[in-house]
From TrEMBL:
<keyword id="KW-0282">Flagellum</keyword>
<dbReference type="InterPro" id="IPR019776">
    <property type="entry name" value="Flagellar_basal_body_rod_CS"/>
</dbReference>
<dbReference type="InterPro" id="IPR012834">
    <property type="entry name" value="FlgG_G_neg"/>
</dbReference>
<feature type="domain" description="Flagellar hook protein FlgE/F/G-like D1">
    <location>
        <begin position="94"/>
        <end position="166"/>
    </location>
</feature>
<feature type="domain" description="Flagellar basal-body/hook protein C-terminal">
    <location>
        <begin position="223"/>
        <end position="268"/>
    </location>
</feature>
<feature type="domain" description="Flagellar basal body rod protein N-terminal">
    <location>
        <begin position="7"/>
        <end position="35"/>
    </location>
</feature>
<keyword id="KW-0966">Cell projection</keyword>
<dbReference type="InterPro" id="IPR001444">
    <property type="entry name" value="Flag_bb_rod_N"/>
</dbReference>
<dbReference type="Pfam" id="PF06429">
    <property type="entry name" value="Flg_bbr_C"/>
</dbReference>
<dbReference type="GO" id="GO:0071978">
    <property type="term" value="P:bacterial-type flagellum-dependent swarming motility"/>
</dbReference>
<comment type="subunit">
    <text>The basal body constitutes a major portion of the flagellar organelle and consists of four rings (L,P,S, and M) mounted on a central rod. The rod consists of about 26 subunits of FlgG in the distal portion, and FlgB, FlgC and FlgF are thought to build up the proximal portion of the rod with about 6 subunits each.</text>
</comment>
<dbReference type="Pfam" id="PF22692">
    <property type="entry name" value="LlgE_F_G_D1"/>
</dbReference>
<keyword id="KW-0975">Bacterial flagellum</keyword>
<dbReference type="InterPro" id="IPR053967">
    <property type="entry name" value="LlgE_F_G-like_D1"/>
</dbReference>
<protein>
    <recommendedName>
        <fullName>Flagellar basal-body rod protein FlgG</fullName>
    </recommendedName>
</protein>
<dbReference type="Pfam" id="PF00460">
    <property type="entry name" value="Flg_bb_rod"/>
</dbReference>
<feature type="region of interest" description="Disordered">
    <location>
        <begin position="203"/>
        <end position="224"/>
    </location>
</feature>
Length: 270
């Protein structure tokens, strides 16, 4: 009965974590470029009381084992594409595919995002940089900051599907800016770590980023004037939330039943 208490308790902890993950998904249903997560679980140590064996054409065909509950093993991010919403802004970008934008954060580290709602930041010396809403510079395919000259009309900015930038001047001519917005792919994007602010950071498991222009698959295309919405489906998350709540409730009833059995055993009289 004591085993039942701890086993059911592990189930309650696991489902509480599951609800935390689902709640985070629901809270980010309107976050640009957000990718939903799911919790994964594995079972804990088993106590083997009798093992299956064969001896002289006879024996026990099955094991006698009892488990000790469950634990959270991982959170897996779903990178399925969200809807592409047409904003009409020349500074809004969405990636149709596996790619990520490259961002330089305040501690001079390069991080990655699916959020292409960029802005123009003007520095004290008058330079105009392409940045995120938080003011972090957006990098080009050479990992350099994207800076616009004063004569560039940002409203006439044109960006190709591979990120190459140009603009239409007052004479109606297309002027190449000589820079391309950086767009990278990862060998294992599922290992990227979310750090908040719609940003991801790479680690050894994710592998080294590859510029989309060098990726032989050509799976990523940039779309100007669009933003990628969150891929969270509210109905699906609500169903998962109900299932997690019921599982939590059943585990709590198992603890209560074990406690009642212990109370009966304690009240036995000779």
């Amino acid at each position: 009965m004591m085993r039942a208490l701890w086993t059911a308790g592990s189930g309650m902890k696991a489902q509480q974590f599951n609800v935390d993950v689902i709640s985070n998904n629901l809270s980010n249903v309107n976050t640009t470029g957000y990718k939903k997560e799911r919790a994964e679980f594995n079972d804990l140590l088993y106590q083997t009381m009798e093992r299956a064996y064969v001896l002289n054409d006879s024996g026990k065909p099955v094991n006698l084992q009892v488990g000790h509950g469950t634990q959270v093993s991982a959170t897996v991010r779903n990178f399925d594409k969200g809807n592409l919403d047409n904003t009409g802004s020349s500074l809004d970008f969405a990636i149709d595919g596996e790619g990520f934008f490259t961002i330089l954060t305040s501690d001079d580290t390069i991080q990655y995002t699916k959020d292409g709602s960029f802005k123009i930041s003007v520095s004290e010396d008058g330079l105009r940089k392409l940045t995120t809403s938080a003011g972090y510079p957006v990098l080009d395919d050479a990992e350099q900051e994207i800076v616009f000259d004063t004569d560039v009309d940002i409203s006439k900015l044109v960006v190709t599907s591979q990120g190459a930038m140009s603009y239409i001047n007052s004479d109606g001519e297309t002027v190449d800016l000589g820079q391309s917005i950086g767009m990278v792919n990862f060998p294992n994007k599922y290992a990227l770590e979310a750090v908040g602010g719609n940003l991801f950071t790479k680690n050894s498991a994710a592998g080294e980023p590859v510029q989309s222009s060098e990726d032989e698959t050509g799976s990523s295309k940039m779309k100007q004037g669009y933003l990628e919405s969150s891929n969270v489906q509210v109905v699906d998350e609500m169903v998962k939330l109900i299932i997690a709540q019921r599982a939590y409730e059943v585990n709590s009833k198992a603890i209560q039943s074990s406690d009642d059995m212990l109370q009966i055993a304690n009240n036995l009289r000779k």
